[in-house]
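Suppose a colleague, Dr. K., hands you the sequence of a protein chain of 777 amino acids and asks what its three-dimensional shape might be. Before reaching for any lab equipment, you can write down a predicted structure in token form. Begin with the sequence itself:
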Amino acid sequence: MKFTDGFWLARPGVTPLYAAEAYDIERDSDVVRISAPTKVIERRGDVLNRAMLTVSLSSPLDGIVRVRIEKNTGAATGPGFELVGATDPDIDISITDAGGSLTTGPLTARIAQGAPWNLSFEADGRTITSSGHKSIGHVTLADGAPVTTEPAGVSGVTTTGLAPASEYIHGRLSLGVGELVYGLGERFGPIVKNGQTVDIWNADGGTSSEQSYKNVPFYLTNRGYGVLVNHPEHVSFEVGTESVEEVQFSVAGDALEYFVIYGPTPKDVLERYTRLTGRPAHVPAWSYGLWLSTSFTTQYDEATVSSFIDGMAERDLPLSVFHFDCFWMREFNWTDFEWDPRVFPDPEGMLSRLHDKNLHVSAWINPYIGQRAAIFAEARDAGYLVKKANGDVWQWDMWQAGMGLVDFTNPDATAWFQAKLRRLFEQGVDAIKTDFGERIPTDVVWHDGTSPDVMHNWYTQLYNKAVFEVLEEYRGKGDAVLFARSATVGGQQQPVHWGGDNSSSFESMAETLRGGLSLAFSGFGYWSHDIGGFEGMPDAAVFKRWVAFGLMSSHSRLHGSTSYRVPWLFDDGTEAPGQSAVDVTRRFTTLKLELMPYLYSVGLEAHTTGTPFMRPMQVEFDGDPAVDYLDRQYLLGPDLLVAPVFSASGDVEYYLPAGTWTNYLTGESVTGPLWRRETHAFDSIPLWVREGAVLVTGSRSDRPDYDYSDNPLVTVYPGVTGTTTVAVANPLDGTSVSLTITANGDAVTVTSDADTVFRARRAGGDIVTSNDRTVVL
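The predicted structure, expressed as tokens, is then:
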């Protein structure tokens, strides 16, 4: 949202008032309060008829500074996000004639007395960012000021021009030379956000647009800090665009609150951010296996479902979860939680039969109720649906005819919705796909009086939280999993999320990955996507390349719109050995299951520290300028580098940072840094193990949920030094076995703390079976 016309002028009809100086700096308990008039006060008369901004500095958590800017401190303000990890940290406040400071952990906010306005943030002896001249402003729009609005249904929110409100507050933080910005939710454009205008406003725009299902007003930079703008409502970011030396963020109204979150590494920033806003929940081992869907508008019944499942088994394609999309319910009734009796006359029996095949079951829902559904009247009469200002139920036909929207700000409505969900779990459903939650109207009245602008983005958090609570109630913590599309700050607490409606092309495959990496930068631990693309029918090459990418992601789902995604539909089986869609799917499904001991530990790390499962290169190789712009490769956990192939020919180019790398599939060893250009068959992908890794793989490749401590294989890669400890879990009972790897000169010893058999080897060497809990390599 741009307010200025170049460096000196304001746009027509725009009146900005900037914090001109720190006139008074005072301590109020654990808060530094600054009076910032909008003109330098040179004489007594200057205090008359003058607006003033009040800036408060405080800390909700060590290493995080809260900055609150208010024009009118008596005005009602929005609630902000749920800061579930906020504490009362030790802080140090100092106020002198030169200015004031607030120190929390390693981070200090320092405000200079007088003019010009200068608020800096310092750590490790350096200024990491600052808020200088014209960086804090209150902006008024006169009647007739130029406004550019989007089409109807987006409530006037703009991606260019100005949104139609009468006043705004903006903040700006400096960008240093070479400083790059990442994050801001699941965004499908370039992973580096410099030069972009980003509107935080959830929308159902697919993956090929600037809109996003998961908008998160949080970014981090390669200078060791992150920024969270604490507003669920629309936030507009100008990332080095309006002022090319700064990031600007603005909100409607006369108050703005943001947090500066110190690292110094990207992992440290994400650890603090997720400690404040919530860690990703631990997800069950079974959820990491392959999910197969009915797809969206395809025809299916129990016989169709059984044919898919049996077809996978006949072709030795391990399957973990079967998902029923929309049409498990009768058309026009969504969401009424009732199986369509015309095609599923015995849902309990069917679900029991699926469980007998060692499958978990997922079912689709959304937060809307079509007026044809019997429960629509029930919800309407009880006051559980969102209403218009005149008291009528808000309805529209965009998804299902006359549908209403469940009002999750009403505790009784939430409890009612959860009671309907419990029936599904009693029938045998194990997981829920929470679709939609983005197209939330702003011309409505919410039960608890929350502003419609706030609820537009915040709605998805209440929706997913309501469902996840019941999942945990039925399945227990650590065994509950969603498949959610929309999210905002805090949504990472209810995993898993998937990337929304992509297309069946290599271009869409690449934009999908960019969205996932951007979401990882935004504090989300787990992420998935529709293998092969959602819209359209992928050709065999797209499908097979996407299978490799999808199974080297945290969660893996075959799902489409108007066509099925069973692998045998994509070619005729006359391909060269190992190159058919069935062969490729088998190859990468069993590879993922073989890696489960390692992958499960990666998931536990996401849960305990907030470090994402799929890691942008910039997270693991902070300080290597060669990775700054990379968005076609990533790390799966700390030790596996994946470079998906985005071409039918198999041509791929990627970068290996410094160190010795070992190809997991071929055993080849190379020393980086270097760029590689290669051509891969469909059953191959660049998959490299990092120097110093100790990789534990499993003894099974038919399912993801087994005892990983039962005869695992420990592979010690080049570069291991000293002593390393690896925990090998048994997800079936929550126990684990600890393996200690000690490198002493040329010898490597692997020792177990339990009486369990394991195997060990050096990379490329012979396998040795343990004897008396020990292997010497």
